[in-house]
Amino acid sequence: MQDTSGESNGHLKGIPRNVLLMIIALSVNGFGIGYLFIYIPAYLPQIGVPSATVGLLLGVEGLTMAIMAIPFGMLSDRKGRKRLLIIGSFGPVPMFFVFALTIDPVAMTLAAALGGIFEGIYLATVNALIADQTALKYRDTAFTLSFIVGGTGMALGTALPFFIPELSGILGINSAALHTDLLYLLGFISLLIPFALYFILKGVKETIRPATIPWRGKSIRTLLKFSGINAIIGLGAGFIIPLIPTWLLYKFAIPDSISGPILAISTTTIGLAAAFSPMLARKIGTVRAVVLTQGLSLAFMVALAFVGNFITAAVIYVIRTGLMNMAQPLLDSYLMGIVDKDQRGFASSLNSVIWRVPNSVTTIAGGIILGSGNYDLPFLLAGGCYIVGISLFYATFRNIKPSE
């Protein structure tokens, strides 16, 4: 048996120090965002917020992200990425403080929109900055590490509600007050991240590039194909994936103190699975690795529509999530390798936008479907979209290789 530990260690050493520190700092934001992933779709319905409003909050956040991502992606290609990334790292702060103060739908929607603006700036820069600072040989490993560390932070955040009932008893604080206190605490912690990033990235030198038309060039057609196919996956995912905690609450009466840990386990599984994705890509190629893992997840996605008990649903969801998302760092790295270097910010933002717009629309639709009492249809709609998207990805990109 071949010993690959030295090879793996060498790949880790090839990741620049500032990239490693940036990944760690951003994982702290991931911790807070993980808590919001449970607070919005699981806790808000428990205190009387309708699922249609939940879908609206998630959808508006995604749509405002989409509006802002492309112009800031273009700006980052010209002026540099690190300052914009620092601004974008404020992302979850408005939602933490507004949600702590009120459950008024208008106020929460405005906070979600502002959070989406910051997220758009963040998504327009983070992947491009990692790619700019990391050589092609080590890029899959860098994106995988970012995915795992960020996912671990999110997993810990989604697990927080599990401890709320016990903490409530120990501290003598009711559950509602404890949820609010956590929002304030995470909001103040998130305020520190931009300052940490400033010191981490202070020494990074970036090239100021002349103005170009980003939608021209030899790689734009490839980018549009990639993003268009990715949009089909986003379209399907929106029907149910952001609303899994709401589905668990409605179908199985599972509160956020239980659905949170389930999402934490699934996120941890993603990280563990993603650790093997660079090795799989080196053996069978990036495109085949993506198609294999996402294709295997499809059966589990469709099976969730027919599950009759919570334990089985939880196990299937964890397996499905690990398989579907272990290829995500490979996709991020692959995209940065099939577009021109001067278009990476634009490519990252455009891909995020084209994925998020249909995803946000179908999340709103998914909330309405769940509110009507139909708990199976969202999975079937998502599965159909995944079949089309995965098939088109393989047919289109099986012979296209990334470059330095």
Number of strands: 0
CATH topology term = Growth Hormone, Chain: A
Broad structural category: mainly alpha
Give helix % range: over 70%
Q: What is the element string, with H for helices and E for strands?
A: HHHHHHHHHHHHHHHHH
| Major sheet details | none
Please give a structural write-up.
- There is one protein chain.
- With 404 residues, the protein is an all-alpha fold.
- The chain has a single domain (7-397), classed as Up-down Bundle (Growth Hormone, Chain: A), CATH 1.20.1250.
- It has helices spanning 5-13, 17-46, 51-79, 82-88, 93-101, 105-133, 136-171, 175-201, 220-238, 244-252, 256-274, 277-284, 286-303, 310-325, 328-338, 344-371, 377-397.
- Helix 3 packs antiparallel against helix 16 and helix 4 packs antiparallel against helix 6 (105-133).
- It starts with a helix and ends in a 7-residue tail after the last helix.
Task: Kindly list the characteristics that best describe this protein.
about 400 residues; mainly alpha; Growth Hormone, Chain: A; 17 helices; about 0% strand; globular; disordered N terminus
In short:
The protein has one domain: MFS general substrate transporter like domains (Growth Hormone, Chain: A). The protein is 80% helix and 0% strand. It has 17 helices and no strands.
Secondary structure blueprint with pairings:
Elements: H1 5-13, H2 17-46, H3 51-79, H4 82-88, H5 93-101, H6 105-133, H7 136-171, H8 175-201, H9 220-238, H10 244-252, H11 256-274, H12 277-284, H13 286-303, H14 310-325, H15 328-338, H16 344-371, H17 377-397
Helix pairs in contact: 2-3, 2-7, 2-8, 2-10, 2-11, 3-6, 3-16, 4-6, 4-8, 5-6, 5-8, 6-16, 7-11, 7-15, 9-16, 9-17, 10-11, 11-14, 12-13, 13-14, 13-15, 13-17
